[in-house]
Specification:
This protein is mostly helical. The chain is built from 11 helices and 2 strands; from the N terminus they run H-H-H-H-E-E-H-H-H-H-H-H-H.
């Protein structure tokens, strides 16, 4: 009976679909990188129209002007991402028996379309000032755009993982409920941190505290003066300090869990490497006065840290997800 069950589960594996889903989850990080670079060089408004760029699908001079190249490349990669997501959803609709996975793919389509609209609103409403928060309506949409990008990345990773052979065969191990709870906590903390980071970046607060690791020129831990930009920057540092405790705690707990598979244990090591790199890049942002390459790298590694933490936590919940779906 066990052999028959394994044979049936093996037959459910769809390598081409799994590869396409993995491709989509990888492409999203190219999109994040291009978006981060566009913001880092201040090119978010290289074109004042949307969905066209200067009224064209192929605007004149975009290959030779850095700001135009960054923004238009971001838009083109977003179009590819939308197409990939829709194809993936249709593919799953036609071939996938698991209703929850089909629904997750539909959710991904909704997210990518919402992301496109929010990105467009960021451009179209950039000139509308919101006095209450002393910023433009377009920049508020940019903050939302950055947050939705992280949710979208996690959704694609969840789909790709569920399409993988190891998930279908149930080879991911079975970890302790305490480990799973700790993973959920870390994912929530990372989402909060990346939301704070989005507000900070689009409020021009990246250098609101121009010293590191101290928060003032006298070497103190607290800023010498306070305003909104200093506050959101300091909140980003405080949350980072918390994550420097929570993420290693999760990684070591996952490695010590008897139910962890080899993949989970290796992923825990990768998480620690990403955290170390992220701390180094965060420091370099201050020391290089927000060099575009360093800032872009910091955003990308932050997204990869969330993605890795979410992936580990999602795999740790595999049995619970499939059991609940089958009930």
């Amino acid at each position: 009976m066990a052999s028959l069950s394994t044979t049936r589960r093996t037959a459910d594996c769809k390598p081409t679909l799994a590869f396409f889903a993995a491709f989509g989850s990888a492409w999203v990080f190219l999109l994040v990188t291009l978006g981060a670079f566009t913001t880092s060089i201040g090119a978010g408004m290289a074109f004042s129209d949307w969905p066209l760029s200067n009224g064209s699908l192929n605007p004149h001079g975009w290959m030779t002007n850095l700001a135009m190249f960054a923004e238009h490349s971001h838009r083109l990669s977003a179009e590819v991402m939308s197409t990939v997501t829709i194809i993936l959803a249709v593919w799953l609709w036609r071939t996938e028996e698991r209703a929850w996975l089909r629904k997750l793919a539909y959710f991904a389509v909704g997210l990518v379309l919402a992301q496109a609209v929010v990105g467009g609103l960021r451009v179209l409403y950039d000139s509308h000032q919101v006095e209450l928060v002393d910023t433009s309506l377009g920049r508020l949409f940019a903050m939302l755009h950055a947050c939705l990008a992280q949710l979208f990345a996690c959704t694609l990773i969840a789909i790709a993982a569920a399409c993988s052979k190891s998930w279908i065969l149930g080879n991911g191990g079975s970890v302790d409920p305490h480990t799973r709870r700790l993973g959920r906590l870390c994912v929530a903390l990372l989402f909060a941190q990346l939301a704070i980071a989005a507000v900070m970046r689009h409020s021009f607060a990246g250098l609101a505290i121009p010293t590191f690791p101290a928060s003032n020129f006298d070497g103190g831990l607290l800023p010498a003066t306070w305003n909104f930009r200093v506050g959101i920057h300091f909140a980003h540092r405080v949350m980072a300090a918390g994550l420097c405790v929570a993420l290693p705690w999760y990684a070591f707990t996952l490695r010590a869990d008897r139910g962890s598979s080899t993949g989970l244990r290796l992923g825990a090591i990768a998480l620690l490497v990403l955290l170390t790199l992220q701390i180094a890049l965060g420091a370099q942002i201050i020391w290089t006065y927000r060099a575009a390459a360093v800032t872009t790298g910091h955003v990308l590694v932050g997204a990869l840290t969330l993605a890795t933490t979410f992936w580990l936590t999602w795999l740790a919940h595999r049995d619970a997800i499939e059991t609940k779906a089958a009930a």
